[in-house]
Amino acid sequence: MTDLAVHFEGVGKKYRHFTLDDIHLELPTGSIMGFIGPNGAGKSTTIRILMGLVHQDRGSVRVLGHAMPKDQALAKQQIGFVSEDLRLYKTATLAWHMGFIRSIYPTWDQAYAEQLLRRFDLKAEQRIKGISHGQRVKAALLLVLARRPRLLVLDEPTTGLDPVARQEVLGELMEVLADDERTILFSSHNTLDVEQISDQITFIDQGRIIDTGDKEGFLDRWRRIRLDVPAEVAPPVLPGVMKAGGSGRLPVVTTNRFEPAMAAAYQHAGVTVLAVEPMTLEEIFVANVHWRREGGIS
Amino acid sequence: MNHAMVQRLIYKDWYFNRFAITAYVAAGLLSLVALALGGEAGFYAGSILLITVLVAVGAHMAMIAVTERRDQTLAFVMTLPISTLEYTTAKIVGNLMIFFAAWTTLLVGTVAVIAGRQALPDGLIPFAIVVLFQLFAGYCLMLSVALVSESQGWTIGALVLGNLLLNGVIFAVSNAPGVGANMKSDSIVWSQPIVGVLWAEVAAILFLLGLTFYLQTRKTDFL
User: Fold this and answer.
1) Which residues in B lie closer than 8 A to residue A91 (C-beta atoms)?
2) Contact criterion met (CB < 8 Å) for A73 and B8
3) Mean pLDDT in chain B?
4) Are the C-beta atoms of residues A44 and A131 closer than 8 Å to each other?
5) Which of B13, B87, B220 is the best mutation test for A, with the most CBs of A within 10 A?
6) Does the interface ipTM go beyond 0.90?
């Protein structure tokens, strides 16, 4: 049985205008999951439930072997959480925050913290209210990384960062990934960021998980096929074709179950395959969301 | 219960409010000086300043719970290895300690000033204690509402209600049979109305604190 760092089973949470519905989520230890969804899809609610900050109405959540929210204090010893919703004390310095966190977590690595200070170009004596948004995110990341948590939960950490700061943050995360025991859940609506660091992908939309799997699997399975269909030919309906667009003679079909045999089947039916194009994670995500909203089922 | 963690959170609140606490204690001591040295004007000025300081320190401390959510530092605190109960304990105990330090100083000071000044009859002491306990109860109401609702509006509402109740208690107790005359006497008299109101205030304080713990442990959303 795979060792799971995070395990959601049938989790639901109902608000007046939003429902998180029947969430099943498995994050194996040592993996990096990109958690992708549009704004308001339920990413942050799912993560808050994972952290014990919001209690689920139904279903069970286990994080690093601890039942949530009941054993949240134990679980949070080993979780590092950075979120857009989280702020440090603006009247205190970063040095104060470092001392505060060090006093709580015995795993605090001071040498690594100082290394991160230099790498992120942060000044420990500077007050939080005097630093930029990018520096605040880096400061929060420093406070989390220097604890060396077993599970890193990052809720939209790169939102609002300039390209340089974003690359610095992502670069540091890449380095952290060198540790095989570290597990990361990275939520974002920026698929480019997620694509860079994740090996697992989960899509969420309208409070439901719509697809999950390993990143390479997604990139291998999804294709856009450009066809040339003569007037007298009816293109065959092949399994796995999710969407047909484009003009009448030159349709473009999208599939989530591409096999080379598909191209052969089109050609056999008298349809010319002009191109078989790989799709980016963003294109896969958008196509997946639209397909599910139109009632598509895997 | 992780006592070390609770202590750290209390220390954190004290650290962030150290200047405000110092200022309130200084203002409280100033009110005692006015009570001790001033004439009739000093007595009234000192009394008003004393009540104002206690209301202000209570409101200030209660609002910290509200601003933690507004400033999004509550998320930072709640991601630390603490449970809901530990957070609530730290907030209530930390807040109570700060208020209690100021309140006790002023309680002792007030009693000492009344007992020490010839111009002030000792019969005022039970009445002063009732007023100070009412301020404590009003503070507990505000703290309870602030923690449970995390709303500035509701907390201000609780502040207004607490002040109305304070004035109501002052009016009711000073006009209760026999109390007015006792206040002007040189001996301390624990009359039935005074003792009854004091017990009611203590019960209200305990009820509000217990209710806050109960409601906080049932809370399901901390962000």
Assistant:
1) 16
2) no
3) 87
4) no
5) B220
6) no
Q: Which residue of B has its CA nearest to A49?
A: B221
Paired with A6 in beta bridges are: A27, A63
Minimum Cα–Cα distance from A92: chain B residue? B16
Q: Do A73 and B73 touch (CB under 8 A)?
A: no
Q: Is the pLDDT of residue B98 over 90?
A: no
Chain-chain contact of A77 with B71 (C-beta, under 8 angstroms): no
Rounded CA-CA distance B203/B198 in Å is 9
Q: What is the dihedral of CA B26, B29, B30, B31, to 10 degrees?
A: 130
The string of pLDDT tens digits covering residues A163-197 is 888 887 888 777 766 665 789 999 987 888 888 88
What is the Cα–Cα distance from A31 to A177, expressed in whole angstroms? Answer: 9
- What is the reported pLDDT for A61? 96
Chain B residue numbers with beta carbons less than 8 Å from the beta carbon of A87 are 71-73, 75-76
Which residue on chain A is closest to B2 by alpha carbon? Answer: A73
Chain centre distance of CA A6: 14
Answer yes or no: do B12 and A77 touch at CB < 8 A: no
User: How many helices (H) and strands (E) are present in chain B, helices listed first?
Assistant: 9, 0
Q: Which domains, ranges and CATH numbers included, belong to chain A?
A: 4-217 (3.40.50.300), 223-278 (no CATH)
Mark yes or no for CB contact B222/A103 under 8 Å.
no
By CA distance, what is B4's nearest residue in A? A104
Give the 3-state secondary structure of A95-159.
HHHHHHHHHHCCCCCHHHHHHHHHHCCCCCCCEHHHCCHHHHHHHHHHHHHCCCCCEEEEECCCC
In this prediction, residues B46-58 reach a mean pLDDT of 85
Residue in B closest to A93 by C-alpha: B16
**A12-42 tens-digit pLDDT:** 999 988 999 899 999 999 889 999 988 888 9
Instruction: Decide: A129 and A90 in contact? Cβ < 8 Å.
Output: yes
Concatenating the DSSP letter of every residue in A23-49 gives EEEEEETT-EEEEE--TTSSHHHHHHH
Given B73, B84, B222, which is nearest A87 (Cβ)?
B73
> What local confidence, expressed as pLDDT, does residue A179 receive?
61
Beta-bridge partners for A245 = A252
Q: Mean of the per-residue pLDDT values for chain A? A: 87
Contact A55 B221 (CB under 8 A): yes
> Contact B79/A54, CB-based, under 8 Å?
no
Q: What is the pLDDT of residues B11-51, one digit of tens each?
A: 998 888 888 888 888 888 888 888 777 677 887 888 788 88
Contact between A76 and B71 using a beta-carbon 8 Å cutoff? no
Contacts of residue B71, defined as CB under 8 A and 6 or more positions apart, other chains included, come to A87, A90
Of A249, A224, A219, A255, residue with least CA distance to A237: A255
Does the pLDDT value for residue A297 go beyond 60?
no
Decide which of A159 and B81 is more confident. Answer: B81
Q: A with B: how many residue pairs have Cβ under 8 Å apart?
A: 61
Under 8 Å between Cβ of A223 and A287: no
Taking the C-alpha atoms of residue A161 and residue A84, their distance in angstroms, rounded to an integer, is 11
